[in-house]
């Protein structure tokens, strides 16, 4: 900072500080901030090319003269100077103003003459040839900048809406992707479960088949055992060949003859032959012997006949 203005107190008079014609290239913001009662600052006729962002913190300023400098632009937060009523920017190199300029609601006087302003701003600023025109300049430039502010706000709102819509679409895509992933995981789990179910059913069917085979084998063994048992029983219970009727009759006759012979022998050979009970026996024996002889003849004939039939066959 130029040594000529190091002692800022020497430049202060009441609520004003005169820093004009000091060959300044920058604004002593830090020093000005130490004197909040100074509301009027004259920085005209210097070589200032820009204002630092900290200049916008000097919200106590009411009047600022920056005419006849080399300013090419103003800080973006200039609108923070809410108490600023008078601003002289005559004969600088400004082409436009920051959008926040629209927030200088206390501004009543503005001079933008001899600046290479863009067409729309130059038209709003007018000529600023007298006090009335400078007041009109403040009013019209504020209106112009508010319109720009609205356009900027609208553009920002559209940008925000667009960003929000893009974010919504991204979130929707993310949800769709997550839903697809969930569905894929669900499908994989279902397929895995179905696979396990099929394996379980296959194992169950294999066990059932083994059990059925075992059962059939046991039944087969049982049937074979029963068949063998039935065969054995059949063999054991096979009816013995029927004895010949003739043989049975013959044996009966023999027994009868033996019995009769015994009784006859007793009655004939013992002392009992004279007994009364032997008499009919002896008579019966005699008759029996006669009948036996007759039956013997018949039997012989039958045997002889059967023998011929067998030989003939």
From TrEMBL:
Subcellular location: Endoplasmic reticulum membrane; Microsome membrane; Nucleus envelope
Principal localisation: endoplasmic reticulum
UniProt protein name: Leucine-rich repeat-containing protein 59
Compositionally biased intervals (Low complexity): 202-211
Alphabetic keyword roster: Coiled coil, Endoplasmic reticulum, Leucine-rich repeat, Membrane, Microsome, Nucleus, Repeat, Signal-anchor, Transmembrane, Transmembrane helix
Top-level taxonomic group: Eukaryota
Topological relation to the membrane, as annotated: Single-pass type II membrane protein
Membrane spanning residue stretches: 245-266
Source organism: Maylandia zebra
Keyword Transmembrane helix: yes
Keyword Coiled coil carried by entry: yes
InterPro entries in the record: Leu-rich_rpt (IPR001611), Leu-rich_rpt_typical-subtyp (IPR003591), LRR-SigEffector_domain (IPR050715), LRR_dom_sf (IPR032675)
Cross-referenced PANTHER family: LEUCINE-RICH REPEAT-CONTAINING (PTHR45752), LEUCINE-RICH REPEAT-CONTAINING PROTEIN 59 (PTHR45752:SF4)
Entry-linked PROSITE patterns: LRR (PS51450)
A cellular component term, taken from the record's GO annotations: endoplasmic reticulum membrane
Biased composition, class Basic and acidic residues, residue ranges: 168-201, 212-221
Region called Disordered, residue ranges: 168-237
């Amino acid at each position: 900072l130029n040594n000529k203005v190091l002692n800022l107190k020497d430049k202060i008079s009441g609520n004003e500080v005169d820093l004009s014609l000091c060959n300044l290239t920058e604004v002593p913001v830090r020093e000005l901030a130490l004197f909040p009662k100074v509301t009027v600052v004259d920085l005209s006729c210097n070589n200032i090319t820009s204002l630092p962002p900290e200049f916008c913190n000097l919200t106590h300023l009411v009047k600022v003269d920056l005419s006849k400098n080399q300013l090419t632009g103003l800080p973006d937060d200039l609108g923070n100077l809410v108490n600023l009523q008078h601003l002289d920017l005559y004969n600088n190199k400004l082409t436009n103003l920051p959008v926040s300029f629209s927030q200088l609601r206390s501004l009543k006087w503005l001079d933008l003459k001899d600046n290479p302003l863009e067409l729309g701003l130059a038209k709003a600023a007018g000529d600023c040839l007298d006090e009335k025109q400078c007041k009109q300049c403040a009013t019209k430039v504020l209106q112009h900048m508010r319109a720009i502010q609205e356009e900027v706000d609208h553009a920002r709102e559209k940008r925000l809406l667009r960003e929000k819509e893009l974010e919504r679409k991204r979130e929707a895509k993310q949800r769709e992707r997550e839903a697809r992933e969930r569905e894929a995981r669900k499908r994989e789990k279902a397929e895995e479960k179905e696979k396990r179910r099929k394996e379980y059913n296959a194992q169950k069917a294999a066990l059932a088949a083994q059990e059925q085979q075992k059962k059939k084998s046991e039944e087969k063994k049982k049937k074979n055992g029963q068949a063998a048992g039935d065969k054995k029983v059949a063999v054991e219970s096979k009816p013995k060949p029927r004895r010949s009727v003739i043989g049975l009759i013959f044996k009966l006759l023999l027994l009868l003859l033996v019995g009769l012979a015994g009784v006859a022998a007793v009655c004939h050979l013992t002392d009992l032959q004279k007994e009364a009970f032997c008499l009919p026996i002896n008579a019966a024996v005699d008759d029996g012997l006669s009948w036996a002889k007759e039956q013997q003849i018949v039997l012989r004939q039958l045997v002889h006949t059967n023998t011929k039939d067998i030989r003939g066959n």
